[in-house]
Amino acid sequence: TPPGDDDEDYVPSFPAIGSAQRAAPSMASLRPQSNAASMMLPPPLPNRFQGQPNSRKPVRNMAANGLMDSLRSQRSGGLQTPPTITEKPKKPRKKVILEPGHSPLDWARLQRSGYDLRGISTPGFLRITPSELKKHNNQPDDVWTALNGKVYNLSAYLPFHPGGEREALRGAGKDCTTLFMKVHPWVNAEGMLKECLIGFLVPEDDESASIDIQTDDKPVVINGSLEDID
Question: What InterPro entries does the entry give (predicted)?
Fold first, then answer.
């Protein structure tokens, strides 16, 4: 029998004995059973900078190298070293030693001396065809050449040529204008060879071409007619 209500020390039970609440399962019994493993903290997340596969390291290194190359290029203004072009070195010309008394000054002095440097008996200028010019290529006394339409007797000039006689003979008996302009276009040939001028180069079929012209700023007979040669 439960104690009476007049008992001062009596404390009623809750829920009451035999009540529906007392008969229902407790909340503690509804909670899932836990063990020590379930009470442990979850494992830490993997560090994205660690544990990467080895296969990705070269890619990262290549990217870093590319970045460094880009920075170097920017610092240098983006200029790249031009490719090296290997050219065949030109053979240096052999220096020709002229005989004493055959310097350019000696040649200039000889031209002013009044000595006949033309080497022909005709006092005037000749009209010379290519076929006639070709006949005069014999060293040392009969070497003619054509330059810019004018024909010169090089016989007296050969030992004075700075490149040597052999080089000068490359133009013997022919038109050497192309060769002359290729080797030394800056040289004033007209002034250097003015006393060696013997005539002018004319076409092969030129009717006035002749080596028998006798002229000294006087009327001459050419093909039976009188003409003046300036």
Answer: Cyt_B5-like_heme/steroid-bd, Cyt_B5-like_heme/steroid_sf, Cyt_B5_heme-BS, Cytochrome_b5/Flavoprotein_Rdt
Helix ranges, 76-183 (H)? 104-111, 130-134, 165-168, 177-183
CA–CA gap between residue 194 and residue 111 (Å, rounded): 8
Q: Are strands 126-128 and 197-201 parallel, antiparallel or unpaired?
A: parallel
Q: Which fold has domain 116-204?
A: Flavocytochrome B2; Chain A, domain 1 (3.10.120)
pTM over 0.70: no
Distance CA 171, CA 155 (A): 12
Nearest to 115 by CA among 157, 148, 149: 157
Taking CA atoms, 144 is separated from 62, 119, 138, 185, in Å, by 73, 10, 9, 20
Domain range annotation of the chain: 116-204
